[in-house]
Write a structure and sequence with these properties.
Structural class: alpha+beta
Helix content: 25-40%
Radius of gyration: 19 Å
Strand order of the largest sheet: 1-3-2
CATH architecture of one domain: 2-Layer Sandwich
Oligomer: single chain
CATH class of one domain: Alpha Beta
Length: about 130
């Protein structure tokens, strides 16, 4: 953040110290595979397409998350691919957030704003 932004935030929210101002450290994008992982040709055809789409959205190759334990109720075996994860920091994070707020969210039908009770706002209000 530049100095003028920090000064405005300090005045509006009543912070005494520059270090009290909330900052974005990282954005984590998670994609669950769900029942797709039980398809017969999952690793050959479906998984590369999902990886391609997530990397296109985030600009970074996703990490493949595997199940740690077998859970019979969810039909999941240990080592089975259950999702993809991307952690964005610094410039990629800023670019992703600006595209999300300025391009993607305004195009959502019947969009009524971001939930103020989400984790992001709760972490800001802990001070």
């Amino acid at each position: 953040m530049d100095k003028s932004t920090v000064k405005k935030i300090k005045e509006e929210l009543g912070y005494q110290n520059d270090l009290d101002i909330p900052k974005l450290e990282k954005i984590v994008v998670n994609v669950g595979i769900g029942k797709l992982s039980q398809q017969p040709n999952f690793e050959d055809k479906i998984l590369p397409e999902v990886i391609k789409e997530v990397s296109l959205i985030t600009g970074q190759k996703p990490f493949i998350c595997k199940a740690k334990k077998s859970i019979a109720g969810f039909k999941v075996r240990a080592g089975q691919i259950v999702g993809l994860k991307v952690t964005l920091r610094r410039q990629k994070m800023k670019d992703f957030l600006s595209r999300l707020v300025n391009i993607a969210l305004p195009r959502v039908r019947d969009f009524k704003g971001i939930n103020l009770k989400s984790n992001v706002y709760q972490s800001f209000n802990q001070n």
